[in-house]
């Protein structure tokens, strides 16, 4: 049963273009994947906001804030660290130490 639930949440995440914070907010609001999929706006429903925006608006209205993902992937941290390590270092030399 849990595999089927995860599969439906994964489908909703993919079709509604949600990230993990949006999924968490939707779950805290008591929404189901089916309700998210039903609220995807069609081309004729231009007045309807995307599901991602709709979830954030409802969550902010109910709780007063939204959840944001601040952590980075370990690969991204490693890449940034290597960039900082390989950056040229600036050496401060005073005018008195210059040969000319």
From TrEMBL:
- Which domain of life does this protein belong to? Bacteria
- UniProt-recorded name of the protein: Uncharacterized protein
To which species is this protein native? Anaerobacillus alkalilacustris
């Amino acid at each position: 049963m849990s595999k089927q639930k995860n599969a439906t949440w994964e489908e909703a995440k993919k079709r509604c273009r949600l990230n993990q914070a949006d999924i968490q907010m939707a779950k805290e609001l008591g929404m189901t994947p089916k309700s998210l999929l039903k609220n995807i706006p069609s081309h004729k429903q231009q007045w309807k906001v995307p599901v991602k925006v709709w979830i954030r608006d409802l969550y902010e209205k109910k709780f007063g804030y939204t959840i944001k993902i601040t952590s980075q992937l370990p690969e991204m941290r490693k890449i940034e660290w290597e960039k900082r390590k390989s950056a040229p270092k600036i050496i401060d030399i005073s005018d008195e130490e210059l040969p000319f």
